[in-house]
Amino acid sequence: MDDKKKLSVSELSAEDLTSLCQSLRSSLRIELESAKEQLVAVNVANLEPMWRRVAALADLERCIRTSDEALLADARSELSLLIAETPPSEAPTLGRCHHSLGVLEIRAFRFAPALSALTRALGILDEERAST
Predict the structure, then answer these.
(1) CA–CA separation, 34 and 25 (whole Å)
(2) Is residue 131 in a domain?
(3) Domain extent for 24
(4) Is residue 74 part of a domain?
(5) Residues 13-57 pLDDT 10s
(6) pTM assigned to the model
């Protein structure tokens, strides 16, 4: 039996799910102010820990797209903490964390750490479909 816990949308309120999805879509379209507004609408305090990590990752991904080098150092630290607290059972989120760290390192012109992070992401996501 597979003991990995899947991210279930039934654990989210309809409003939080809508806001989180809209934030992720806006971030992908590089509509970063809209992404931030939608993410602020998510009631993070009421989320299950796994969904809090998804929301934190969404905010960090938005930050990575908007930040200068000085702010990237803070995002790097926050991503490292998020990676440390995300259990292997949340493979899609963990893989995205490593991918986001790789993107951050590319933005900071640190190519060896970027390659390491992206390789870890591929190793995690090779076994699990990234659905978050």
Answers:
(1) 10
(2) no
(3) 12-125
(4) yes
(5) 788 888 888 888 887 788 878 888 888 888 887 788 888 898 888
(6) 0.79
